[in-house]
Amino acid sequence: MIPRAILTAAEMKAAEDATMASGVSVDQLMERAGRAAADIAWRMAGKAHVLVLCGPGNNGGDGYVVARLLAERGCEVQVAALADPATDAARNARAQWPGPVDAIGDARPAPMVVDALFGTGLARPLGADLSAALCDLVRKARHSLAVDLPSGIETDSGALLSPVPFFDATIALGSLKPAHLLQPAAGFMGMTLVGEIGIAAESALLEIGRPTLVPPLPSAHKYSRGYVLVAGGAMAGAASLAADAAIRAGAGYVALAGPEHGEGPLALVQRLAVDPRTLADLLADERVDVAVAGPGLGLNDKAEARLESVLAAGKRLVLDADALTLIAKRGAETLAGLDAPPILTPHEGEFARLFGDISGNKVERAREAARRSGSVIIYKGNDSVVASPDGRAAIAPPAPSWLATAGTGDVLTGIAAARYAATGDPFEAACEAVWLHGAAARMAGPFLIADDLIEALPRALAACL
Ligand SMILES: NC(=O)C1=CN([C@@H]2O[C@H](COP(=O)(O)OP(=O)(O)OC[C@H]3O[C@@H](n4cnc5c(N)ncnc54)[C@H](OP(=O)(O)O)[C@@H]3O)[C@@H](O)[C@H]2O)[C@@H](O)CC1
Ligand SMILES: Nc1ncnc2c1ncn2[C@@H]1O[C@H](COP(=O)(O)OP(=O)(O)O)[C@@H](O)[C@H]1O
Ligand SMILES: [K+]
């Protein structure tokens, strides 16, 4: 699957300028944008009475186009505007709307509401009266559609600048923007669709899409499919979850090396490694492709020594949980010299421990963390962001919140290890793992526990063949 690009407000503006330089006028772009939005509104509500709220900028201009096209289809349309249009394109669009334009205060609740107040140009919070009116009108509607973005959202960060209602659908014009995937904004969009308006959308920031996997070659053997070694520690269950997930995610050989035997399928190779030297010996096996440390590792001196063996092994690494807490003490930048970029999988708390002083939105923080640590970062959450030290970054579509349960992160770590062993590319592996994890969660369903994710993994993987 070709991943969709995500453009910041500035990148969108540049893409729009490039399109115009090739001979397309802003009025034509606005007509396409309005037509795409009107088509969605029509599919949602048919001939229902429509209220279109228009702002002063080009988002409002799109709104006037929507109003005209829906009226042409026979809808009864009320247009309510915040102010007169402030751009030429919006003025032209308004001039082509044959009906009256009311003040926002005169907007009457309608079964279908189209929000064309503000899009990527929103620079500050909506006034309290305006956001209250927007929330009230959307709440009273049966269907609601936001044009480009719900008004009140900051495009690049996904922050809510002022209160925003829940929309049934949002049409992203030309391309996804970060706010379509980042929380809290993404939670207010309803179904998000991208409206094609003829802009070439290219970016180093992508949406994580379904990976394409290939079955093992006829010549495959267990080691060619990837050997993952999971270093266990104080808590056998967590390491077992990671190891079990790695084997279910397609690694050909998975060994769990801990101070005691863990749980897991019979196919999992259990190796007793009571002291760090034994662990180092196991890691010295040249067939080991990827080593995992963190889940259930512990935080005491023994855990430190085990982590040391893993870091010194010269292998590709996936580091999570306790390993991240231990690394935070010595500084994440100490990872920058490893032979291959490791994958780090911090949740919000671990990220703060590792990179507490980084500011900016979630994508910027993930990118800076990747650069500093020379690592691929999976910055977890409902809007997981993956960033690579080479500047590539990706945002996952919202994952089921049922994932908020103990052990699901250990499963992600195991999947990432299996994919890193298979692909050799930590960024690709991280993105694939995040997608598979979310898909397995959707298949496992409500009230899932971490073990259910592992059980669902083969079905999630099969969907990618
Ligand atoms: N990119 C593309 O290819 C295409 C983009 N298109 C569309 O254009 C949209 C972007 O348009 P845009 O740049 O004109 O910005 P927009 O969101 O309408 O708002 C700016 C206006 O609002 C004002 N303003 C801001 N905050 C405010 C506040 N809190 N309260 C009150 N006022 C506030 C601000 O005023 P100022 O800050 O200058 O005082 C300015 O007047 C984009 O989302 C998409 O829908 C399509 O038509 C065609 C293809
Ligand atoms: N509310 C949520 N919505 C979607 N995904 C979530 C949510 N909460 C947690 N997750 C996902 O579940 C996993 C939890 O990982 P983590 O916090 O490390 O748990 P643990 O350490 O118990 O395994 C991560 O992949 C995270 O992205
Ligand atoms: K809008």
Automatic annotation (TrEMBL):
Q: Which residues cross the membrane?
A: none
Query: Keywords in UniProt for this one?
Result: ATP-binding, Isomerase, Lyase, Metal-binding, Multifunctional enzyme, NAD, NADP, Nucleotide-binding, Potassium
Q: Which residues bind (6S)-NADPHX?
A: 58-62, 119-125, 148, 238, 296, 347, 410
Q: Which residues bind K(+)?
A: N59, D115, S151
According to its UniProt entry, one GO biological process term is: nicotinamide nucleotide metabolic process
**Which domain of life does the protein's organism represent?**
Bacteria
What EC number(s) would the UniProt record show? 4.2.1.136, 5.1.99.6
Q: What's its catalytic activity?
A: (6S)-NADHX + ADP = AMP + phosphate + NADH + H(+); (6S)-NADPHX + ADP = AMP + phosphate + NADPH + H(+); (6R)-NADPHX = (6S)-NADPHX; (6R)-NADHX = (6S)-NADHX
Query: Where is each YjeF N-terminal domain found?
Result: 12-205
Keyword Membrane annotated: no
| Record-linked InterPro entries | CARKD, Nnr, Ribokinase-like, YjeF_N_dom, YjeF_N_dom_sf
Cofactor section = Mg(2+); K(+)
Q: Where is the YjeF C-terminal domain?
A: 205-464
Sites where the protein binds AMP: K380, G381, N382, D383, S384, G409
Q: Which GO terms describe its molecular function?
A: ADP-dependent NAD(P)H-hydrate dehydratase activity; ATP binding; metal ion binding; NAD(P)HX epimerase activity
Gene3D superfamilies attached to this UniProt entry:
3.40.1190.20, YjeF N-terminal domain
Cofactor note from UniProt?
Binds 1 potassium ion per subunit.
- Alphabetized SUPFAM superfamilies for the sequence: Ribokinase-like, YjeF N-terminal domain-like
Q: Name one Pfam family in it.
A: Carb_kinase
Question: What family does this chain come from, according to its entry?
Answer: In the N-terminal section; belongs to the NnrE/AIBP family. Belongs to the NnrE/AIBP family.
Subunit architecture: Homotetramer.
What function is annotated for this protein?
Bifunctional enzyme that catalyzes the epimerization of the S- and R-forms of NAD(P)HX and the dehydration of the S-form of NAD(P)HX at the expense of ADP, which is converted to AMP. This allows the repair of both epimers of NAD(P)HX, a damaged form of NAD(P)H that is a result of enzymatic or heat-dependent hydration.
- List the HAMAP family: NADHX_dehydratase (MF_01965), NADHX_epimerase (MF_01966)
> What is the designated name of this protein?
Bifunctional NAD(P)H-hydrate repair enzyme
Instruction: From the UniProt record, report the name of the gene that encodes this protein.
Output: nnrE
